[in-house]
Amino acid sequence: VKRLILVLGDQLSDDLSALREGDKETDIVVMAEVRSETDYVAHHPKKIAFLFAAMRKHAERLRADGWDVRYSRLDDTENTQSIPGELIRYADETGAEEVLATEPGEFRLIDALEECPIPVHLFPDDRFLCSHAEFEAWAEGRKELRMEWFYREMRRKTGLLMEGDKPAGGKWNYDAENRKPPKEGLDPSGPMKFTPDKTVQEVLDLVAAQFGNRYGSLDDFWFATEPGQARRALAHFIRRSLPTFGDFQDAMVTGEPYMFHALLSPYINAGLLGWREVCEAAVQAYEDGDAPLNAVEGFVRQIIGWREYIRGIYFLEGPDYPQRNGLGHDRDLPEFYWTGDTDMHCLKECVTATMDNAYAHHIQRLMVTGNFALLAGLDPQQVSEWYLIVYADAYEWVEAPNVVGMSQFADGGVVASKPYVSGGNYINRMSDYCKHCSYSVSTKTGEGACPFNLLYWHFLNRHRERFENNPRMAQMYRSWDRMDEGRRETVITEGDAFLQRLSAGNRV
Ligand code: FAD
Ligand code: DLZ
Ligand code: SF4
């Protein structure tokens, strides 16, 4: 029988399970730009432009490789604007009776395919290192699913940075060396940028016309949109940034949105790069003496450790995971998350960079926008939707465990063993933000006090029952209890007042 092979926007890898199952002689590849995918949340225009341009180029590559490809552009008049709709339309058109697909990275789309009136055969997405079965077997019977133990298994499995059965250099994890604050004179070269070609320009015009009114800037688009470019971006990162990546992984500097980060996540997640080539390039740099072990180990851990672990959690925990709200937080997301219009310089800087670039690096996501959301008790689903919209690398499988789990502790501690919260001191140590802020980071209460300082204690106090017996938090509660009672009352009263202003939509 004639079959359709579905290739989704984040399945742009040359080696894809559904294509491997197909037959170039008889089967037809379907790729579709559709409103159901651009609108399930109001994605940043740069994210849509990146995906559409990469999809169009991938379709051309598949054609050159001998496939018959039906490609729906968003503004084609017959476009039914949903993935199942397009499958049905092309099945009618071609007489195909079945669909082959690689498992989508989201339960919403898996369900939609399962409900499709044409039989859809799903094949595992084996572009990941760890299969669902392997992750389940690892998780089975464990009281705590800590990334570090999972990561060691992946090191052993891949042999990356291994000397026999021992980790290179004698330690599994060199994170302790990766927390240097920024210093004067750092000069990150930033990611490699690509001038839009004809295909990209056509997509930019379409996206400007259809999504130009949305949150996020389309100006200065420079993402890689094909594997060759993504590989050049990888080589550029390895040469220029990897040697310093480890040391300054957590550092933040005003006007430096990329620091020494790879900016490879949009490419890896969409399939333009694979985990293996990325990790092998980094390990090669270590073996050639071009990058230190702390940087290379840190980078490899993000990819075969964190990235795989996060995906494992999403599929292990199931469809209700993104809806969890373990701390019962319900405050609405403040408007400044969309505008950057706040006196808190750290938040202004991270939100503005996000609007401009559809990117922020890990510590900005975790310790600025995420930390504030958690301290202020924002509704984790609104927070999660924001992250899914604003980042070019965001798909639910990776976004939800990072946000609902790691950042907002709304999964009750599956991903994180304690909430990632801090007062202004941490941000001050790791950035130059506080120097440019109208709040004072050294002021704990009263006029001009940094809101992170107030909210930090406010958070600990209101969640005392939940956290005081957590051994990793005992020290914090001891500090709070040692504080003078009058001071504690002031912190609570001023914290309450700040949160009321926030909820009322006043400028903060
Ligand atoms: P680098 O810092 O240079 O890291 C290298 C690579 O490691 C990344 O390209 C990425 O592929 C991988 N990686 C690192 N950490 C993680 C992680 N925690 N989960 C998955 N992969 C990881 N990453 C996404 O890909 N999509 C998301 O939607 C996403 N949302 C996040 C939300 C929050 C609140 C937090 C704290 C983190 C989130 N991350 C997400 C993880 C991480 O911040 C990004 O992968 C990283 O910032 C991407 O930039 P980079 O390529 O410059 O990364
Ligand atoms: C994110 C996205 C967007 C914005 N648009 C499309 C699209 O038009 N067509 C498509 O096939 N895929 C798109 N995607 C990616 C899907 O939403 C993604 O496959 C699911 O979120 C599963 O990871
Ligand atoms: Fe952010 Fe507080 Fe520093 Fe201002 S003083 S930049 S609000 S941490």
Structural description of this entry:
With 508 residues, the chain is mainly α. It has 3 domains: 3-123, Rossmann fold (3-Layer(aba) Sandwich), CATH 3.40.50; 132-210 and 226-317, Serine Threonine Protein Phosphatase 5, Tetratricopeptide repeat (Alpha Horseshoe), CATH 1.25.40.80; 336-503, DNA Cyclobutane Dipyrimidine Photolyase, subunit A, domain 3 (Orthogonal Bundle), CATH 1.10.579. Helices cover 50% and strands 5% of the residues. Strand 6 (162-163) and strand 7 form a beta hairpin. It is globular and about 80 Å long. The chain starts with a strand and ends in a 5-residue tail after the last helix. The mean pLDDT is 96. Residues 171-186 have a biased composition (Basic and acidic residues). Residues 171-194 are annotated as: Disordered.
| Total individual domains | 3
Ligand inventory? flavin-adenine dinucleotide, ligand DLZ, iron/sulfur cluster
What would you say the CATH architecture of the largest domain is? Alpha Horseshoe
Largest sheet: 5 strands, parallel
Write the topology of this structure.
Blueprint: E1 3-6, H1 17-21, E2 28-32, H2 35-39, H3 45-64, E3 68-72, H4 83-94, E4 98-102, H5 107-114, E5 120-123, H6 132-139, H7 147-158, E6 162-163, E7 166-167, H8 198-211, H9 227-245, H10 265-270, H11 275-287, H12 293-317, H13 336-339, H14 345-357, H15 362-375, H16 380-390, H17 396-407, H18 424-430, H19 451-462, H20 464-467, H21 474-482, H22 485-503
Bound molecules: flavin-adenine dinucleotide (FAD), ligand DLZ and iron/sulfur cluster (SF4).
Pfam families: DPRP
Organism: Jannaschia aquimarina
Protein name: Deoxyribodipyrimidine photo-lyase-related protein
